[in-house]
Amino acid sequence: MATPTELRLPRYGEEPDGTHPPLDFTGYRSTALRHPKQPLTLLPQMLTEVTGPLLGPGRLGELDNDLTRQHEGEPQGQRIIVTGRLLDGEGRPVRDSLVEIWQANAGGRYRHTGDRWPSPLDPNFDGVGRALTDSEGRYTFTTIKPGAYPWKNHDNAWRPAHIHFSVFGSAFTQRLVTQMYFPDDPLFSQDPIFNSIPDEKARQRMVSRYDHGITRSEWALGFQFDIVLRGRDASVFEEEEDEDE
After folding, report:
1. What are the start and end residues of every segment in region (Disordered) (predicted)?
2. What span, in angstroms and rounded, lies between the C-alpha atoms of 120 and 109?
């Protein structure tokens, strides 16, 4: 048996510089107020943090991954199917991982008290879902394409349509958050959150890909969005979320 001094952690390909956003980005106003200005303090991880959450099929409801069937009526908007794989840095599937999403409705409004802009709420759409990855690392959601919405970062500022993704590992301390965008959005050029990613290739990895094979006839458009945890093709993970979400 190897002694502690002989143990080696696995090595992964390094992520290129510019893969993740800086903590403070000039164009994104609230980062100046919210990014850490003091050295980070390491908190010891207790048993609760390293042994939970306990995940499994029994923890999820039948309709947790279908946001279009969680109410008696149907939500307004274009149905979409979003699917992809959760992969490690070597391209291997990450199984039994909890993937959560949250998003605005088709009118660009979130169902929470902080969202007050005059777009109607949809009584048949909550905008939240979750799924477990299967043996191939795949997740699937059926939802509504979210609308763009205004925010007060700069003059006439609008966020491109996007869906937030949260990925859990084997413990509460292992959580990553990213955003998925849609191809050819005209708002990319003026969005400081999207453009805070220095590396263009990394930025484009946040944009989903239309997939006609996933698209269901007379029902829903299909989009592919893989999430890679580390390495040269790592997905972009957020340091913080914008204040209107």
Report:
1. 1-23
2. 7
Quick: pLDDT tens for 67-126: 999 999 999 999 999 999 999 989 999 998 999 999 999 999 999 888 989 999 999 999
Residue 79 to residue 93: CA distance in whole angstroms: 27
pLDDT category of residue 36 using cuts at 50, 70 and 90: confident
Please give the Cα distance from 234 to 20 (Å, whole number).
Answer: 9
Tokens of 183: 């191809």
pTM: 0.86
> What is the rounded CA–CA span in Å between residue 228 and residue 18?
16
Residues known to be catalytic: 110, 149, 159, 162, 164
Question: In 3D, which of 194, 173, 151 has the Cα closest to residue 50?
Answer: 173
Question: Can you tell me the distance from the alpha carbon of 206 to that of 199, in angstroms, rounded to the nearest whole number?
Answer: 12
Interstrand relation of 158-159 and 149-150 (parallel, antiparallel or unpaired): antiparallel
3-state helix, strand, coil in the chain (%, to 5): 10, 25, 65
